[in-house]
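1st attempt posting a full record on here, be nice pls
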Amino acid sequence: MRNFFFVLCVIATSALVSCDDDGSYEDYLVARPILQDAVSFKAEAVAVTEPVPIVTSGKIYAYGDYIFVNDVNQGFHVINNQNPSNPEPIAFIKLEGNNDISIKNDEIYADSYGDLVIFDISDINNITLTSRIVNAIYNNDVWMFNTEFPQADFYEYGDIDYDKDIVVGWEVNTERRPIKEYEARFNCDDCVFADVAENFNNQSPTTGQGGSLARFKIIGNYLYVVDYSDINIFDITDVENVKVLDDVQVAWDIETIYNQGDILFVGGSQGMYIYSIENPEKPEFISEFRHGTACDPVVVDGDYAYVTLKGGNFCGTAESGLYVVDVSNLEYPELKVIYPMVGPNGLGIKGDTLFVCDGTAGLKVYDKSNAPNISLINTFEDIVAYDVIPLSSSLLMIGEGTLYQYEYVNNYIRLLSTLQL
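the predicted structure (as tokens):
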């Protein structure tokens, strides 16, 4: 079990509510984890079933004639896409705590509450579980990765033994607490680095393709997985003997991973981090591009990185927009242009075309042939756009439980099919 680090602010609560306190109190939302026994959980958490309705659509992944759609924290739906005009759901892989997958040589690598789970899909009609590597990605710190992480003013984690318990949800209650205690959360003069493990126990034909929001990335014989702060590295040369290598600490806000050749571009809420994987087992830091706090997927093509920043809610205070960054000199990335956006999510590139999912503003299509100056050429409105995957002749897009497929036609695209999941 590896160690995982996080910033903890040391707050002396008893001092804040002493007799000298000015007596100012407010009602605050306090979240506490709901636990389940790990042994019983893992026995119930994996199954392959007939297709079921989606609960909360997440990320998408394309592999051969199949599309995999994540059902946030539930598993993923398998769709036969041999006929893109009429895609057909064929199975649901129940995998609790799942948000990401990546596929190579008919093996699915997926997360499940910090574990790395591997499935064999060589027979798509008989999907089997190959192995489960416990705590390979992170130490079951579900509270940091669950997209349904509750909005609250305080989070009381308690004394959790992650060897025995798994966080499966949250209970949120209103409690009256000193205003000073709330304000102290943002005063990190006394912040210390603590060992949370002790406190909280260009793709080959055999590799699939994920979207820009992916945390999983297979490059050659290596699987790279980003958690909240680290790049986790796995040697998957032998699927029956996957090697868990030393992870590389990046920052405290990691969200996505993308590569251009042997360069990794890691998106985080504070910036974009650039690493070389010339030695694939030991990513080496090159530089970073810092921006305001926001959710931050990134894609790269040639000399330019395209970064969508989404502000508001849990994403931060930065103004939503599309940032075009010159990365011709990897050591000194330079912001060139910012294009305002409503609520951007994922994005993708196909030749000189840039696709941006702008949330409730729909799917936006840009001509980037004159980058960093780009021009809007089409907008698909009245849909909620979440993430895209540009394929050789079509575009996949997911949004609010619906899978959209578009066909490229003379530098434009047209809707080919929709599938309510």
